Structure formats: structure tokens, C-alpha cells
Amino acid sequence: MRSLPYDIEFRARARRTQGWGLGLLAVAGLMWIWLAVLLFAPYEVGEYGDNDACKSRWTTQNLHDDSSDCADERDWPELLAVLGGSVPVAVVGAVLYTSGSVSHRMAEHLAEVTRLNQAARS
Q1: Adjacent-strand bridge partners of 52
Q2: Strand ranges (DSSP E) for 3-51?
Q3: Which of 19, 92, 94, 122 is the least crowded, having the fewest Cβ atoms under 10 Å away?
């Protein structure tokens, strides 16, 4: 038979794991928002008064054929680094969230089965 303190601690640990997973998923979502801003927002290059207006990375064609500083400011490796960094964070977050959810549901199920078994014996 399960003891109540163990059950409470198990459920708290499952909720904590679920919370960590949700937090990591939020971080991955913020990284995807940052990627979207870098990809779709127009930007400026230059210092203090001589700013060059650049189109967004998404709409610019033949950006590397241009002799302006726009090509050097937002290049594809930075964008791919943000995307590549967000994937492991999202995967770990999804695994932790799922693990915490399953653990909590299993604890609820086991408590209900135990309650039904005790009711059947009475």
C-alpha cells in the first residue's frame, strides 16, 4: 500500500518536471519569435547619423551581390544558429512536460484504482 507522503512528493515532483518542461517550451517559443523578428523585420545599418535602411531578410533577393553593409549585418548563419539552438530546447521541454504529465496521471490512476479496490473489499 502506498503512503500518503510518498504520493504527495511524487505528484509534486511530477508537477515540477512539468513546470520545467513548460518553461523550456516558452524559451524555445521566444527563440522562434526572435528568429521571426530577425527574418521579417526591416533594419538599419550604420552609426549615429549615416544609417542605411535595409529590407527584411525574407524579401531581399540577391543580398550578397549588393555592396552595402546589409549583407554583413544579418547573415544566414546567425538566423540558423537561433533556429538550431531552439530545437534541442524545444525537444527537451516537450519531453519533460510529457514526462511530468504522464507521471501525474499515473499517480492519479493508481490512487483511483487503490480506492476502488478498497471499496470492493468493504
Answers
A1: 45
A2: 43-45
A3: 122
